[in-house]
Amino acid sequence: MLQSRDGWPVKTRELHNHHFDSTAWNDFAFRDDDIVIATYAKAGTTWTQQIVGQLVFGGAEEVPVHDISPWLDLRAPPTAVKHALLAAQTHRRFIKTHLPVDALVYSPRAKYLYIGRDGRDVAVSLYNHHASATEGWFRMLNDTPGRVGPPMPPPAASAGEAFDTWLEQDGAPFWPFFSSVRSWWQIRHLPNLLFVHYADMKRDLEGQMRRIADFLGIALSPAQWTAAVEHCSFDYMRAHGEQTVPAGGAMWRGGAASFLHSGQAGRWRELLTPQQAAAYERRAVLELGAECAQWLAQGTGADAR
């Protein structure tokens, strides 16, 4: 990871495909209290946006997270639209990215949350995401002007087939997985970055929310905490999908329930063969190293730094 003289990561490339336009960060005007939520994809991004929204707004009902917390590096809507939306906000801003660090402008002024999840769960969740997408989703990705590279293809016939392609071609047909995780792991020591794991949030939601709140310097009253934790349950998020899920769930058959799906950790055990699971484990250690691969597979229950 290339670093500047003062030790901060430096952007070294642009990433473009059917989803990405990484130039969206190049002239973004950061504020000192900005929050950036970073993941690969299907690792708990929307859940973490909901958590941060509840912390920022003190456990308020029906915070319109998907309207106010954009995926900045997504190609649609245009970058200028998202920049204007964020520039007009007076509350503490929280922004989503799926970029690896070397394609992102990393600011010392912001606080970063990196959310990890077992890559096998990521892959099977991506398959559900892909298989339940509407024609509108495909048109947005493939027909929006400025796409670089091939279009997003139709989904595979099964989760197992999709997993094989995703593993053998490192993230296809989405984007590379292992190099993205590795880029964030390499900077986990930075003081403005907190690692959080999906499995840890499943095991102890309130505990992980308190870790995040402490890191962000946010204090809530007991009543606000009770409301915030309730509003971050999957049941609440499904019932309020028009506020919590991208596009209100409209781009997936079944709406918000389809987008959030089961929310389980370890669901890959029901869908992948032992051979597929073992192939992933070997690749993860080779690509990430034993320590990172272990953390990604199970979380820690504590700060990964």
From TrEMBL:
Keywords assigned: Transferase
Pfam families: Sulfotransfer_1
InterPro entries hit by this protein: P-loop_NTPase (IPR027417), Sulfotransferase_dom (IPR000863)
Matching Gene3D superfamilies: P-loop containing nucleotide triphosphate hydrolases
GO terms of molecular function: sulfotransferase activity
Sulfotransferase domain sequence ranges: 32-281
Superkingdom field: Bacteria
Entry's family note: Belongs to the sulfotransferase 1 family.
Name this protein carries in UniProt: Sulfotransferase
Organism of derivation: Immundisolibacter cernigliae
